[in-house]
Amino acid sequence: MPSFLNSRTIALVCVTLAGSAFAASHLSPEVSGAINARKAHMGLYGHNLGPLGAMAQDKMPYDAAVASAAAANLAALANMDQSTYWVEGSDIAAAGGRAKAEIWSDRAGFDAEIEKLAAAATNLAAVAGDGLDAMKAGFGPVGASCGSCHKAYRGPRP
Amino acid sequence: MRWRRWILYALLLIVAGLWWTRPVALPDDALAGLTGDAEAGAVIYAASGCGSCHRAPEATDGPLAGGRAFPSPFGTFYAPNISPHPTAGVGGWTDVEIASAVMRGVSPGGAHYYPAFPYDSYQQAEAGDIAHLIAYLRTLPESDAANRPHDVGFPFNIRASLGGWKLLFARPGWVLTEAPTPEIERGRYLVEALGHCGACHTSRNALGGPQTAQWLGGAPDPSGEGRVPNITPGGLDWSAGEIAEYLKSGFTPEFDTAGGEMVDVVENTAQLTDADRAAIAAYLKAVPAVAP
Fold first, then answer.
1. Eight-class DSSP state of A72
2. What is the mean pLDDT of residues A124-138?
3. pLDDT band at A55 (very low <50, low <70, confident <90, very high)
4. What's the CA gap between B86 and B133, in Å, rounded?
5. What is the maximum alpha-carbon separation in chain A?
6. Parts of chain B with a pLDDT under 70
7. Are B188 and B281 a contacting pair, CB within 8 Å?
8. Rounded distance, CA B222 to CA B166, Å?
């Protein structure tokens, strides 16, 4: 047996491997749950933006019922209470993902972005069934709100 | 006394090197016969992204007061005031002095600029477009904000050494040497010359020179977290139409949106024509795929 494979080396390797496994899974259930919920929530935004965006980009014929249903979902999502989403210790540096530390250091600015999306989505839900032009006019501020929040508070992909 | 001769040779070599890499401004007649049109310049301004870096930090409009910080492995650079203020900005500069700064990275006083300013891209621009850009810059509001000195340590604070950087990395010429269609050629102009997309999307070597063999293949994000994505066909599988739509509305094909610095970029590309956005997309489809 080579001398470097003594029991002390093996023990050291085991401790190191266990340590890195711990580092990857050290998140508390509260933090990992919040991150999963945020991702799911964002996914639902994207799913419901799909038909509205396709109609706004003239890639799909306008359908008042489809537009209204999607916009109502967006408004419901945007008005949901998010107080359990943005828990301390769930930023990029602490937990991976893409939530920038500015969410916590500039909480008022971040809350203003949440309010802005809620207002824009509520307005879109009110006008989405009133014809393509009304829907497009309501859709613009929703997209702008996604962009302004992602500009300030979402980090790059890992 | 042989060592004295060697010191003499070394000094001569340094002097020759400094002379060879000295700052060379544009000739006085570089813009002769060109008349800048401010309206055309507004489009060049958007395509070149001047405002995204030179506006005051966090500002989305207002004068090009400068002050925004750009961290890098070499230190932190601060964008200068390029508003038309006669003393704090560039209002007192001649057109050729501004063009020399943009296209040669040389100040009116004859010093090299740091390549945080993407003159290595802008040198490929048409002189006529730069004349339009200068005419537009002169119409913008003034700011009296003082320039903040760069926070760069030794040896990178020796500006004379930047001549060597230019010699190695700011050589004129296109990265995509063959542009098979006029649309791809237009896209190449918008991406490589004006848009300077490679400044962020191409990785850099230890000296800060772009690694053109990995052109647009993605790079570590300067913030230290995450990566600037690979936008070659090796990393981006969107259709040309989807790329053009993203540059217009900021929406990805999955209706995610642009974030971070790209929000500023999309604000700029949204001001281009549909044909120009399609040209950028055609170019991105034509560059060699860099493996993800």
1. H
2. 97
3. very high
4. 18
5. 80
6. 1
7. no
8. 21
Parent domain of A123? 28-153
Rg (CA), chain B: 20
Cβ under 8 Å to B: A residues 4-63: 42, 45-46, 49-50, 53, 57
Task: In whole angstroms, give the CA distance from residue B256 to residue B123.
Answer: 35
Does ipTM come in above 0.85?
Answer: no
Query: Two tokens at A1?
Result: 């047996």
| Residues in A touching B256 (Cβ below 8 Å) | 42, 46
* Residue A82 covered by a domain: yes
Question: How many domains in chain A?
Answer: 1
- Express as a percent the part of chain B with pLDDT over 90: 88
Phi/psi of residue B225, each to 5°?
-115, 130
Assign A6 a pLDDT band (cuts: 50, 70, 90): low
For residue A1, pLDDT beyond 50: no
CB contact under 8 A, A46 and B249: no
**Single-letter code of the amino acid located at B64:** L
Residues A29, A27: Cα–Cα separation, whole Å: 6
Q: Is B223 an 8 Å CB contact of chain A?
A: yes
Residue to mutate among B55, B58, B61, B249, with most A CBs inside 10 A, is: B249
pLDDT band at A157 (very low <50, low <70, confident <90, very high): confident
Q: What whole-number distance in Å separates Cα of residue B85 and Cα of residue B83? A: 6
Is residue A94 included in any domain, yes or no?
yes
What is the CATH number for A49? Answer: 1.20.120.10
Task: Judge contact between A138 and A124, C-beta under 8 A.
Answer: yes
**Residue at A14 is within a domain:** no
Q: Give me Rg for the CA atoms of chain A.
A: 22
Q: Which helix (H) or strand (E) holds B219?
A: strand B219-220
Q: Which amino acid is at B291?
A: A
Q: Helix or strand or coil: residue B115? A: coil
Report angle CA B120, B124, B128 to the nearest 5 degrees: 130
